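PROTEIN ENTRY
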Amino acid sequence: MRVLGVDYGDARTGIAISDLTCSLVGTTLVIHSRNPEKTTEEIVKLVKENQVGEIVVGLPRNMDGTEGARAELCRRFAAGLEEASGLPVRLWDERRTTVEAHNILSAHNYHGKKRKNTVDAVAASLILEGYLMFRGR
């Protein structure tokens, strides 16, 4: 069974899929869509193709731990994804993952359009890595 991590966004949604042992991130990609239903369909397709047994969606919280409108949007998306996939969907605190993703890409000389097309997948991999480490404890 694999775990699929999601960094949900308005125009781009980052996806990371673990290996079969759920110890490493194996695959990353970005779904380009402004339509939440289409994004959900694409994720459900990936779930079926990759033997995914669990999904983790990043939950954006403010630095003080409170939740804003974006967190509510992610909660609704996660609930719809759970219904559509039939799999358990966990929410994972994603504070600073996008900042860390930008830092990683800067360190590897990814800039401009190259970075824009990659940052969401890197953020999804950070969400998934954090969740897998937590699960492994």
